[in-house]
Design a protein that fits this description.
Elements: H1 4-17, H2 19-22, E1 25-32, E2 38-44, H3 52-62, E3 75-77, H4 84-96, E4 98-101, E5 106-111, E6 137-142, H5 149-161, E7 167-172, H6 179-182, H7 195-202, E8 219-221, H8 224-227, E9 233-236, H9 245-249, H10 268-280, E10 284-289, H11 295-304, E11 307-312, H12 316-329, H13 331-335, E12 343-350, H14 354-375, E13 401-404, H15 419-422, H16 426-436
Parallel strand pairs: 1-5, 2-3, 6-10, 6-11, 7-9, 7-10, 11-12, 12-13
Antiparallel strand pairs: 1-2, 4-5, 8-9
Length: 443
């Protein structure tokens, strides 16, 4: 008996390769339901004398090995004889499905999910276009935790703020918040709220005139040891970790944070980002995302940011997770006839220096290139903005930005204690290279 992953690939590959079946079909849609079972939506070619019974027998016979994931006869036939209600169902399923092969016949796959829907939805659009008059949104993501993602975000925030820019950092790692401990509020000031509070409370507001004051969900850091003479750094923490935090977190509707639902007049996360820009006059917005395949990670990588900064390690588990992420940002967008999402690859926890670093960097670069060539770049240069480049092309998304391992940064409690390390060496280079990808630079 086959496993589910094998059944998924077998079903797809059969309809991609069996010319005897393909030539008799105009449209093919594989529908995987919530339980993981397969139903087929097949539209026969408009040719006289087509024997649907013979076609059904050929399909059922070929897919018999998929049991228990496919039961013989689980086929919807999209024929001219279908009723209006049947056609409406078929057309809706076809629109919702993701194209896998343009054909002919065109092949699409529609997957129904109990959770993680944001990792399968169509790409979102940034809250505003990137330009000189709008702040760039940089989204920091890692498949594995503990790779220095939050530390790198704070490093960039500090360096940009020291340049005189107004920076807002937002903690979207709601299950394991980190910004509050690394950048606590000034002494004597308590956190009143944060991202969780805004997402829950703003979604309940029906009168725009009574919208929540965004200033109540953040605080400012103006420590000259950290920022020198730069403007205050605004921190939007995940929230206050008290007895009500888990209750608030359990009520967050991830599906409609960025796109309004039928019962909502607005999308809370989209509203938060726009108000941070407009009311705080933010010039940079940095988002610290949950590691792994969390719903918020999927949403953040779906197009919310102008640049996704991806942190990877030189290890099999990290590369396996990054393959899914690269496909999410690249190949899956191309299949939807959309351009890839801009991103930057970071080689985290690299050896500090010397020949060992050089060897590790070369290995990481080759792994990243092979991965991006398969899952991200557009070798046919069809509609993507990134065709397949050379291996040694520093400006390309696969080319690693290096952040070396620093044992002193593994145990710090407050940024002020290690700020010198966060603004020099690899971190200074990191800031310059990331900003260049959004058309900005340090003086």
């Amino acid at each position: 008996m086959s496993r589910w992953g094998e059944a998924w690939e077998t079903g797809r590959d059969f309809f991609l390769r069996d010319q005897g079946v393909r030539t008799r079909l105009e449209r093919i849609c594989l529908i995987w339901d919530l339980r993981g079972r397969l139903r087929l939506l097949l539209r026969p070619s408009d040719q006289g004398g087509l024997d649907i019974g013979d076609l059904k027998q050929a399909v059922d016979g070929a897919l018999a090995s998929l049991y228990p994931f496919y039961q013989p006869g689980e086929i919807w036939w999209w024929t001219k004889g279908a009723s209006p209600s049947e056609r409406a169902v078929y057309e809706h399923a076809w629109r919702e499905a993701e194209r896998v092969d343009a054909g002919p016949p065109e092949l699409r796959i529609l997957e129904r999910h109990v959770s993680k829907e944001l990792w399968f939805a169509a790409p979102e659009k940034e809250p505003w276009p990137l330009g000189e008059d709008n702040p760039p949104i940089l989204s920091f993501y890692s498949f594995k935790g503990g790779v220095g993602r939050t530390t790198a975000l704070l490093s960039l925030a500090i360096q940009v703020a020291r340049e005189g820019k107004r920076v807002v950092v937002v903690d979207l790692d709601l299950e394991a918040p980190g910004l509050l401990s690394a950048l606590p509020p000034p002494e004597g000031q308590e956190v009143q709220g944060g991202v969780v509070d805004f997402l829950l409370e703003e979604a309940l507001v029906s009168d725009p005139k009574q919208s929540m004051d965004v200033g109540e969900y953040c605080y400012q850091i103006d420590d000259p040891r950290v920022l020198k003479d730069g403007p205050p750094l605004t921190v939007v923490p995940a929230g206050r970790l008290d007895g009500s935090y888990l209750g608030k977190l359990s009520r967050i509707d991830y599906q409609h944070l960025y796109r309004p639902g039928a019962q909502r007049r607005q999308a809370p996360l989209l509203t938060l980002l726009k108000r941070l820009r407009d009311e705080l006059r933010a010039e940079y917005l940095l988002l610290d995302n949950r590691a792994g395949f969390h719903d918020l990670g999927g949403l953040a990588l779906a197009g919310v940011g102008h640049l996704d900064v991806l942190f990877g390690l030189e290890g099999a588990q990290s590369w396996a997770g990054m393959e899914v992420v690269a496909s999410f940002l690249g190949r899956r967008r191309l299949l939807r006839q959309a351009a890839q999402a801009p991103c930057a690859m970071v080689f985290a926890m690299a050896p500090p220096s010397g020949e060992v670093r050089d060897v590790a960097f070369a290995s990481f670069k080759e792994h990243a290139y092979d991965l991006f060539a398969r899952e991200y770049y557009d070798p046919e240069d069809s509609q993507g903005q990134w065709p397949l480049p050379d291996l040694d092309a520093p400006e390309q998304p696969h080319y690693p930005i290096v952040l070396g391992f620093d044992p002193l940064l593994q145990a710090y409690s407050r940024v002020a204690d290690v700020v010198d390390r966060l603004t020099t060496g690899d971190y200074a280079t990191f800031a310059a290279q990331v900003l260049a990808k959004v058309g900005r630079k340090l003086s």
